[in-house]
Amino acid sequence: MSKGGYPSVCVVDTHSTRPAVPPRLSQGRRRAGVAQTLLFLLVSVALCGMAIEACFIYRLYRPGSATSASTSKLIAGPVVTSPPEALVLAPSKPVAHLTDGQDVVHGTKIMAWSMDAAPLLYEMDYKDKSLVIQKEGYYYVYSKVSFLDIDVFYHSVNRRTERYSGGSIPLLVSRRFSVGSSEMRSNSYLAGVFHLTKGDALFVKVSNTSHIARLKSYENIFGAYMI
Ligand SMILES: *[C@@H]1O[C@H](CO)[C@@H](O)[C@H](O)[C@H]1NC(C)=O
C-alpha cells in the first residue's frame, strides 16, 4: 500500500515510528472522510442538476399543455377571445376611413367627417374637411352618401393640389335627377384609383349637404388607401 503510489504517506512513515500508526490511520480515515464528503457533494450536485433539469422540463411542458387546453376550449366554444395583436397591428400603407358623426358640421356643399366616431387615419391627415396625403402613390379613393331624393343631387370626390393653382379637380362624380317630390332615400357610391402626391387634399362635395340622410354614422363614408 505504501508503494502503491502514495509517496507522501511513505515520508510520514519514515519520520514517525510507533505513535505514527494511529495518526496514519486517522489520516487515512480523514482522507476517506474527505472522499466521502466529496462523493456526497458530487452526488448532491448531480441531484441538484437533475432537479433543475426537471424544472426546465416542467416549464417546457407547461405552455404546451396550456395551449392545448385553450385550443380545446376554442373547439368547445365557451370562451372565444380575439387575439390582441390584431388590434395593435399598424397598417403597412397609408389608410383612412371616415364616417359621419355627432360632431360633424357640414359646409353648405362640402361634407365634414367625424373625428369622434373612431376614424381610421394612418399616414394621412384630416384637415379642413379634407384628407391630406402624406405619401405619394396610387390610392383607391371611395365615398358613399345616403341622401333624400328630392330634386337634383350630385355627389363628387375632388382633389385640391398645388400643381393646379386655384380651384380643385373633380375625380369622381355621380348625379341624380329625380322626377317629382317622392322624398325617397337614395345612395351614391363612388370609387376609383388615383395617383396622388404629398400635400394633395381630397374632399367630398354634394349639391346640398342639408339633403344628406344622417340616420347612422356609417351611412355616409369617405376613405382612401394606398394600393
Ligand atoms: C339646401 O336645401 C335646403 C332644404 O331643401 C334649402 O332650404 C336650401 O336653400 C338649399 N341650399 C342650397 C344652397 O341650395
Structure description:
This protein has 227 residues and is an alpha+beta fold. The chain has two domains: 26-76; 95-226, Jelly Rolls (Sandwich), CATH 2.60.120. The protein is 30% helix and 32% strand. The chain has a five-stranded antiparallel β-sheet, with no helix packed on it. A five-stranded antiparallel β-sheet has the order 3-4-9-6-7, with no helix packed on it. The longest helix is centred in the first third of the chain and has 56 residues, at 21-76. The radius of gyration is 42 Å and the shape is rod-shaped. It starts with 6 loop residues before the first helix and ends with a strand. Residues 1-12 and 64-80 have low confidence and may be disordered. It binds 2-acetamido-2-deoxy-beta-D-glucopyranose (NAG). 2-acetamido-2-deoxy-beta-D-glucopyranose is lined by residues 108, 208, 210-211. The site of 2-acetamido-2-deoxy-beta-D-glucopyranose (NAG) has 4 residues, from loops.
Question: What is the fold's blueprint, element by element?
Answer:
Elements lengths: L6 H9 L5 H56 L8 H4 L6 E5 L20 E3 L1 E4 L2 E4 L3 E13 L2 E9 L8 E9 L6 E13 L4 E6 L14 E6 L1
Antiparallel strand pairs: 1-2, 1-10, 3-4, 4-9, 5-8, 5-10, 6-7, 6-9
The protein binds 2-acetamido-2-deoxy-beta-D-glucopyranose.
The site of 2-acetamido-2-deoxy-beta-D-glucopyranose has 4 residues, from loops.
Characterize this entry briefly:
The chain has 227 residues and is of the alpha+beta class. It has 3 helices and 10 strands; from the N terminus they run αααββββββββββ. A 5-stranded antiparallel β-sheet has the order 2-1-10-5-8, with no helix packed on it. Strands 3-4-9-6-7 form a 5-stranded antiparallel β-sheet, with no helix packed on it.
